[in-house]
Sequence to fold (133 residues):
Amino acid sequence: MSGLPFGSRGAAECPCGSGTTYDACCGRFHRGAEAAPTAQALMRSRYAAYAVDDLDYVFRTWHPRTRPELPKQQPGTTWLALEILDVVDGGRSDETGVVEFRAHYRDASGTDALHERSTFARRAGRWFYVTAE
Fold:
């Protein structure tokens, strides 16, 4: 899905694997129409942002205390699937949360997966990615 003009993505299935359209799922967060309501929703939307090459969204949702100058993605990376393995807190009334996931991808070296346990924090009513193990 990466590289398609924004307008052509809307009716396509969301890369996060929710089974809904990109517009109805993560696209609304990427456009800024809504903020992700939970840590898991933010995790999914950040994965989708990598898949559609929206690194501005990745940057905006990275906690200011831990974010790099600019998030980077290896050229030629295609994100294939997201598996949510565990969620600890991170609900609508929580201030922190943890989401463990496996993100499958393909690059010049072949197919692989990134396995991470990410921490999230709510700041001024919005969820932010903090760090990962």
